[in-house]
Design a protein that fits this description.
A three-stranded antiparallel β-sheet has the order 1-2-3, with no helix packed on it. The protein contains no helices and three strands. It is mainly beta. A hairpin with a 5-residue loop joins strand 1 (14-21) and strand 2 (27-35).
Length: 76
């Protein structure tokens, strides 16, 4: 095997929750989540197939782009 170093990794996920008291018995929760908030790409390691035309090149991304999620939950 060939030892190699890939590019650095940075990722930031943010979430916010808000609890709401509806009545004495019922409570609600609102959620907002942002995954990969700054839309930073995480690249796959370089190709290590010696003799390949892509040797040493980074050709793939291994994470997803920014993802936003909203959710609601009710407790009773």
């Amino acid at each position: 095997t060939i030892g190699y170093r890939g590019p650095g990794q940075k990722n930031l996920d943010i979430s916010a929750f808000k609890k709401l008291r509806i009545t004495e018995k019922f409570t609600g929760q609102f959620r907002a989540e942002a995954l990969n908030d700054f839309n930073s790409p995480l690249f796959q390691g370089p190709n290590v197939s010696y003799g390949s035309s892509n040797f040493g090149k980074i050709t793939q991304q291994r994470n997803f782009s920014r993802l936003l999620q909203l959710g609601a939950r009710f407790y009773f």
